[in-house]
Amino acid sequence: MASSAMISLASPSPSLSLKDKLKPKLKLGASVNQTSLFFKDSVKTKLFTRTTMAVAADVSRFENITMAPPDPILGVSEAFRADTHEMKLNLGVGAYRTEDLQPYVLNVVKKAENLMLERGENKEYLPIEGLAAFNKVTAELLFGAENSVILQHRVATVQGLSGTGSLRLAAALIERYFPGAKVIISSPTWGNHKNIFNDARVPWSEYRYYDPNTVGLDFDGMIADVKAAPEGSFVLLHGCAHNPTGIDPTPEQWKIIADVIQEKKHIPFFDVAYQGFASGSLDEDASSVRLFADRGMEILVAQSYSKNLGLYAERIGAINVVCSTADTAARVKSQLKRLARPMYSNPPVHGARIVSNVVGNPELFREWKEEMELMAGRIKSVRQKLYDSLCAKDKSGKDWSFILQQIGMFSFTGLNKAQSENMTNKWHVYMTKDGRISLAGLSSAKCEYLADAIVDSYHNVS
Ligand SMILES: Cc1ncc(COP(=O)(O)O)c(C=O)c1O
User: Annotated Gene Ontology MF terms (predicted)?
Assistant: First the structure.
């Protein structure tokens, strides 16, 4: 049917004049069915088919598709680019900037790329699971090379399309092998988590996390909600530097979270997008994941190298599934590959080589840790300066110390939607409407300006 219609469209035909005759009778957007009803008795089938195709081609087949809303995070950057104000600040997207507010390519990344050029590496397809050298170093970096999960080959590691792609692969695994199981996610969380689970058709609900009264962790609420979730739920946890709040549980609180998850036979699912970037130490930032692994629990961990190696556009990360036996891990890995193959076939090689060169080379690894400490240190220093400026400018007695207690790239200011809009509309400070600011996009020179904007928005906008 379809091919005969295509042939009839391609042939020079008298149908053009027929099409013209039909035009006034058909409304724009008239469907094929309406057309067929109209002509059912008066036109021969062959001609009718050809006419229907020609008319439908006049109207876009995509007519019913509505305009999607701009992405709440990436849309902020678009608006920022269009603003010409000299003091404008982009605190929307979580990407590291230098003190001059310029993007930064790490020196170790340049060195690793030079090594790759010298070696004259080819561009052959990678296997579905990714670059073997990358998969080895990424799991070791996460768990520690001497961890029993590594030594006993109990981790199924598959290279993913950065953090997002790795989360998406894990979501597909959940959808296929745990039908009906729920993922519980913190409220609030990184905006894309909900999209990922929605698109993978994995049911999710939220557990309490943020307490607006203290601008801190609602630990009791979190524990109560994790306990109340159906047994065997997946609990999505931010390994460190919770996005968007910047509020992490303390080591003692992590132990209690692990207790409850074990008690309820839930499966912990970590999102580690900031290893090394939160505290400046790769090991310290992996301690939450390692606590769960050391208890012998089966866990999922998505990793990203966007932030800690500044490889945003290279789309490099991994999904790790810790299983109770090596045999199970081998089977899980085979299924992850099976899910990846029809989605994107196999992952890109460039970022994987950079990571394996940096992490696998003692000299570059040492340099990376130094650079990461510098990046984390710059963020800590603007955090301190913003706090000092707020205290100096705001005479109301408001306690701003929550800013210092938060960790990582972000600060959750506690500003509401209207106040956040005032930040953008009046002060040209671009940020997400939930009150989150990325301190990685702030320079010391602009801390006072930002403090003025926050104090004005907080006190003068309800
Ligand atoms: C919590 C969290 N998870 C995952 C990601 C994924 O980032 P990417 O896909 O660039 O690795 C981000 C990025 O901002 C994030 O904040």
Answer: L-aspartate:2-oxoglutarate aminotransferase activity; pyridoxal phosphate binding
Do 224 and 87 reside in the same domain of the chain?
no
Give pLDDT tens digits for 16-34. 444 444 444 433 333 334 3
Spatial contact of 116 and 318, defined as CB atoms under 8 Å apart: no
Q: Verify that 141 and 278 share a domain, yes or no.
A: yes
Q: Is residue 20 part of a domain?
A: yes
Q: CA angle 406-277-188, nearest 5°?
A: 45
Q: Is 304 in the pocket of ligand 1 (CB under 6 A)?
A: yes
Q: Which of 48-52, 71-75, 102-106, 282-286 has the lowest mean pLDDT?
A: 48-52
Of residues 289, 285, 284, the one with CA closest to residue 274: 285
Bond prior to 188 in cis (omega within 30° of 0): yes
CA 159 from centre of chain: 15
Distance CA 276, CA 280 (A): 5
**Known catalytic residues?**
190, 271, 307
Same domain for 339 and 223? yes
Q: Decide whether any atom of ligand 1 lies within 6 Å of the 308 Cβ.
A: no
Same domain, 51 and 97: no
Task: Please provide the distance, in angstroms rounded to a whole number, between the alpha carbons at the two ends of the chain.
Answer: 63
Instruction: List the alpha helices (DSSP H) in 346-446.
Output: 350-360, 362-393, 402-405, 417-425
Residue 299 C-alpha to ligand 1 middle, in angstroms? 19
**Residue 365 is assigned to a structural domain of this protein:** no
Q: Do 410 and 324 share a structural domain?
A: no
d(CA 233, CA 34): 48
Domain membership of residue 139 (yes or no) is: yes
Domain that holds residue 162: 127-360
Dist. CA 194 → ligand 1 center (Å): 13
Averaged pLDDT of the chain: 89
**What is the model's pLDDT at position 344?**
98
How far apart CA 171 and CA 405 sit, in angstroms, is 32
**Calpha distance 392→448 (Å, rounded):** 10
Res. 132: pLDDT tops 80: yes
- Whether the CB-CB separation of 321 and 155 falls below 8 Å is answered with yes
CATH code where residue 99 lies = 3.90.1150.10
Place of tokens 């301690």: 287
Atom of ligand 1 minimally distant from the CA of 164: 9
